[in-house]
User: Fold this.
Amino acid sequence: MFVMFLGDLQRIATLAFAFLVPPKNPKSTAPRQRLAITLFVFAAAIFRSEIALLLGISVLYLLVIPATSLERVILPFFVALLVSVLITIPVDSYFWQKPVWPELWGFYYNAVLGSSTLWGVSPWHYYFTSALPRLLNGYPFLILLPLSLRNPALAPAAKRLAIPSLLFVAVYSLQPHKEARFIFYVVPPLTAAAALSASYLFNHRNKSFLASLLSAALVLAVLASFATSTTMLLISSLNYPGGEALTYLRDLVQADSEASAIVPVHADVLACMTGVTLFGTAMSSIIPSPRGGIGAGLVGQERGAGAGQISLLLDKTENPAALAKDTFWRQFDYILMEDPKKAGAEDWETVGVVLGYRGIEVIRGPDGGEKTGREDVSVVGRGAVVETLKQKIRALTGGLWVGPRMRPAIYILKRVKGAMGTRESAGA
Assistant:
């Protein structure tokens, strides 16, 4: 759902950028700019506050060129802001059960108070040296964008797209905490700016041998980009062991005829960071409201015809003081966690382990390679597929393997029947 939301938000930002590109009919410039400002304000006020920075830089650039005026900017800005606030504050205040403008509060908490640093700090150049090259498929983009900016026929449109985007990334680099998702909005306009020179070169491919050579290189670059993106997509799918563990647990409980109607489950921080969500626990079209006690919410799932209904009660407690108490762990039937020892291993049996991606490894020889650890535990999820593929390829290549390095990430623990920590004995 987060990916769907992020995709819709990016489409709004992309559409706004499209309206800033110089139109063929100059008379439509003013209404297109008003619509772009409206879309930017709507996205910033309701969905993501950082888009306000992108809006400010884009408008400032248009004023400096100059390609607009304050008269064109002020009215659509304040009208869109007023409408957005009237939408977001009542709706979000209802769900938060207190008066709140989430994006304004999020900006204050993360940027003004600097609390975003709690989630990590990256060097100032991270977006330019790591995030953007990966998002834009590297070197072809670094060649094509300068060509678009230097070509007199392409420069007006390319500058409208590229300069505000690069300035946004530069200013946002001042924020210590950095994530690629914060700059997703500039990927379409920067790609479009680079594509202008790609189109120009391909349309002039018959003009000279050099043009033909560059056009052939463009075609190969597109194919290489597709192959690289597909490979990265497959590797990225290995980064969610928590979600895979939850899927396996859901199927396991579904097939357990002795499972109670409500199954309490605890997920640790790593599990929640890598895919354990309330949406992932949903198996039916009805999702009851969150309730008190242990767990962040109760989500129903169908067990099958005539078997009644079974529900997972998901707990995501992070408080170290609570986690240190033995009585805390006695509430649960299953646990999804990185380190099984923290729950008192004598009361639990490991029913499966999900492997997580830890980079690329090169193994040579039949005896090469590291052990994944806990070889007596069944590997489940995509990690099991990778391990099977790895063994088959090494059998064919004499032990050679170049591929993902997988290590235990999330253990799936089930309470041992009759253990002293069972919920029944705890209640007694």
Summary: Residues 123-239 form one domain.
